[in-house]
Write a structure and sequence with these properties.
Length: about 350
């Protein structure tokens, strides 16, 4: 099963909004077929593994990291009939599919056909691999990772807004890899105005080449202050931009952006700003299963206040900035009591290029 999980992970940057799935067919003590799901619309892992096994799948065992599907409301045929047609005698499944159209039905269909089914082998590892998919299926919102590069005293920019570069190049390379793995990146208008980022995923030693996979770039901009010449609006192969705004935005600005083929998404106001819960629901409808929050302190604070963040990853540089007017990682008003502090779970730390990476779940 661990080999099947490693196969599944090969679809990390391409399978979404489908889950990552790996499958291996074993007959006797030999692997006779294997496969993984590459992207939506292409065959599922089980079908690929069985096809490669051919007649050798007869009487064998199929190891699969996610419960085989049995429903028809998708682009590819269901996997359960293919398994039965191949003559597999036993199916070992790591994780039940949380999709209500499957959730136990695939395993039940196999058992009704007198196929032996074992469920839950390496379940925890499979759930971690597809945590974004599972969250999206359950909540209809993307799994949100809040990322920040900061000094030891928690500052993400100077009082003048300078933030390049607090962290090391190895840390920045890792962030670009993370961008290529998520479906979307979101920033606030403050970050656009102060940093003018492109928010593309890049590769290479100097981060000069565009990665194959680019996230959807999302700007939270209540009054449409995004400059028409901002880098994030430039059309780049595979990189699209959406500006989330409200009815408070000037009509002339909206029309100017739309003439430049920029999508403007009008959402409700919440506390005088774009409703972030509404934004995440809309992104979820569009098949965005994972989201990287790369905003400033105000966007970070709003995402945390609305309980929309599932994971936090902090790149901490060995420097001290100081000053009450520096830009902190979390803006807004501080709670009056320590009991109100958010505490991370499953905390992990590691070194990276002279920085310390701290991450955990909320």
């Amino acid at each position: 099963m661990m080999s099947a999980l490693r196969l599944a992970a090969k679809g990390r940057r391409t399978a979404s909004p489908n889950p990552m799935v790996g499958a291996i067919v074993v007959n006797g003590r030999r692997i006779v077929g294997q496969g993984y799901h590459l992207r939506p619309g292409l065959p599922h892992a089980e079908v690929l593994a069985l096809k490669r096994a051919g007649a050798q799948a007869q009487g064998g065992t199929l190891y699969v990291t996610l419960e085989p599907c049995c429903h028809l409301k998708k682009r590819t045929p269901p996997c359960v009939p293919a398994i039965l047609h191949a003559g597999v005698k036993r199916v070992v499944i790591a994780q039940r599919d949380p999709n209500p159209q499957v959730n136990g039905l695939g395993a039940a269909a196999l058992r009704r056909a007198r196929v032996s089914v074992t469920l839950g082998v390496a379940r925890r590892e499979a759930e971690v691999l597809n945590k974004a998919y599972g969250h999206w299926v359950r909540t209809k919102r993307p799994y949100a990772i809040l990322k920040a590069g900061m000094t030891l005293d928690g500052q993400i920019a100077t009082s003048a807004g300078e933030a390049r570069w607090i962290t090391s190049k190895p840390s920045r390379r890792e962030v670009h890899r993370l961008r290529a793995e998520v479906d979307a990146v979101v920033v606030g208008i403050g970050t656009v105005l102060s940093d003018d980022p492109s928010l593309t995923a890049r590769v290479g030693p100097h981060l000069t080449r565009l990665a194959t996979n680019q996230p959807l770039r999302v700007i939270v901009d209540t009054r449409l202050r995004t400059p028409l010449n901002a880098k994030i609006l430039r059309r780049v192969d595979g990189a699209r931009t959406v500006i989330a705004t409200t009815r408070a935005a000037p009509t002339a600005r909206r029309l100017s952006l739309q003439r430049r083929m920029v999508e403007v998404l009008t959402l409700p106001l919440r506390r005088g700003r774009v409703s972030l819960p509404a934004l995440l629901r809309e992104l979820g409808k569009r098949g965005v299963t994972s989201l990287l929050v790369e905003g400033g302190g105000e966007l970070n604070a709003a995402m945390l206040k609305d309980k929309l963040v599932q994971h936090v990853r902090l790149y901490v540089a060995p420097s001290l900035l100081g000053g009450i007017d520096a830009k902190g990682m979390i803006g807004g008003k501080s709670p009056g009591r320590l009991a109100a502090a958010l505490r991370l779970k499953h905390v992990r730390t590691r070194s990276l290029g002279g920085d310390i990476v701290v991450e955990g779940d909320l």
